Amino acid sequence: MATVFTWEGKTRQGAVQKGELSANSKEEVLALLRKQNIFPINVSAKARQINISFGAPKVTDKDIVILTRQLATMIDAGLPLVQCLDILGAQTENVTLAKTVVQVRTDVESGSTFAEALKKHPKVFDNLYVNMVAAGEAGGILDTILQRLAAYMEKFARIKKQIKSAMVYPSVILFVAVAVVSLLLVIVVPMLAAMFAESGQALPLPTRIVVTVSNFLKGWGGLFSLVGIIGFIVGVKQWRKTEKGLEVTDAIALKLPVAGDLIRKVAVAKFTRTLGTLMTSGVPILEGLLIVARTAGNKIVENAILTTRQSVSEGKTLAEPLTKSKVFPPMVTQMIAVGEATGALDNMLTKIADFYDEEVDGAVATLTSLLEPMLMIFLGTTVGFVIVAMYMPIFQMGSIAGK
Question: In whole angstroms, what is the distance from residue 271 CA to residue 277 CA?
Fold first, then answer.
C-alpha cells in the first residue's frame, strides 16, 4: 500500500522546494525526485491521520470530471504523465479516487499504458473513458481527448441533475398527499366513526367506504399493504436483473406518456453524443457502437444499437438498421444518413446531440408542469372525498334534529 511522504529538496539553481509524494518506499521517492532534477535534503513518511468513516467514499461523476480537467491541463503544460498522476494522487480529496490514481501511476511506471492501467478499475473508469484514453494515447492527443471527455461528462451530469431537480417538488407533494390521507384515515376517521356508531343511524355509501378503508389500514391490512408494496418494489428490482425482466420494463418505460418521451430523448442524446465523441477521438465505428450499446441505459435501445452494429459489420450503412429499429426518431436517422453521405458523420452526430439536449430541457419542463397539477388534483380530490364523506352523517344528524 502506498504511503504519503513529505520531502524537501533543492533544484539545480539552488531553490528550496517542499512537497508530498505517494510511493511504496522512501527509495522510490528519492528516485522520483532525482528524475525531476531535485536533490533531496529530507524525506520522511507523513504521519497517518485517523479518519472514522463508514465504508469507502463513492467516486462521483464530479470527482472524475475535476480529475480529468486537471490531468488534461497538466499534460498540455508538458508535465510527464507519471508526475501528473503523482500530483493528482496526493491532492485528490476523495480517498477512494486518490488510491485508484496512485495504483494507476504505479502500473504506468511499471510499463503499462495509461489505458491498460485505467482498465483495471472498471468501477471508477468505464469502457468509454478507457477507450477514449487509448485512442488519445495512440494518436498523441491525450490532452485533447481528456478535455473532450470532461466536456462530455459535464453535459450528461447537467442533464441528470436537471431531471433529479425537476422531480424533487412532485416527490414532496406526493409524500405530503400520502401522509395527510394516512393521518386522516388512521386518526381522524376512527374518532368520527365511533361517534356515528353511537348515534345508530345508517351511514351513506361514501362514509361506509372511508370507514371500511380506515378499519382495514388500522388492522393487519395496513401492515400487509406496506409489506405488499415493499415486496412489489423488491420483486421488480430482482426481475430487472434478468434479461427478460429488463427488456419488458424498459419497453414499458419507453411507452409511458410524457415520461417515455423524455426517456427516448435522453437515450438519443446520449447515443449521438457518445458515438460522436468516440468517432471524433479516432475510435473505430464498430468498437464505438459496442461501447455506446453498453452505456445506453435502456435494454431496448441497447438491442437496437447491437443490431445496428451487426448490420454495419456486414457492410450496411448506419442509418438503415437504425430506421428499421423504430427506436430512433425519423429526423435522427435521416440526419445520420446525410452525415454518412457527406463524410461528416461525427459532426452530424454532435449537432443531433446538441439539438436533443435542448429537447431534453423542454421535455423535463413539460413533465414537471404536468406532474404538479396532477398531484395537486389527486391530493385535493382524495382529501376532499374523505372530508365530505365524514361530514355527510353529521349533516344528516343535523337535519333530523331540525325536524
Answer: 10
**H or E stretch at 395:** helix 345-402
Do 295 and 347 lie in one domain? The reply is: yes
Task: Please give the Cα distance from 175 to 187 (Å, whole number).
Answer: 18
pLDDT by residue, tens only, the chain of 403 residues: 456 778 788 877 777 777 777 667 778 778 777 777 778 888 887 765 444 444 567 888 888 888 888 888 888 888 888 888 888 888 888 888 888 988 988 888 888 888 889 888 888 888 878 888 888 887 788 888 888 888 888 887 887 787 777 778 778 878 888 888 888 888 888 888 887 777 777 788 888 888 888 888 777 777 788 888 899 889 988 888 888 888 888 889 888 887 888 888 888 888 888 888 888 878 888 888 888 888 777 888 888 889 999 998 888 888 888 888 888 888 888 999 999 888 888 889 888 988 888 888 888 878 777 877 888 888 888 888 888 888 888 777 666 555 5
HEC profile for 321-372? Answer: HHHHHCCCCHHHHHHHHHHHHHCCHHHHHHHHHHHHHHHHHHHHHHHHHHHH
In single-letter form, the type of residue at position 112 comes to: S
Distances (CA, A) of 74 to 64, 183, 330, 369: 15, 59, 43, 45
Q: What is the residue-wise DSSP string for 230-273?
A: HHHHHHHHHHTTSHHHHHHHHHHHHHSTTHHHHHHHHHHHHHHH
In terms of C-beta distances under 8 Å and separation of at least 24 residues, what long-range contacts does 370-377 make, across chains too?
370/258, 371/170, 372/169, 372/170, 372/173, 375/170, 375/173, 375/174, 375/177, 376/173
CATH number at residue 113: 1.20.81.30
Q: Which residue has the cell 472514522?
A: 52
- Structural domain containing residue 17: 3-45
Question: Which residues make Cβ contacts (< 8 Å) with residue 208, sequence separation at least 6?
Answer: none
> CB 378: neighbour CB atoms within 10 A?
15
Domain co-membership, 174 together with 305 = yes
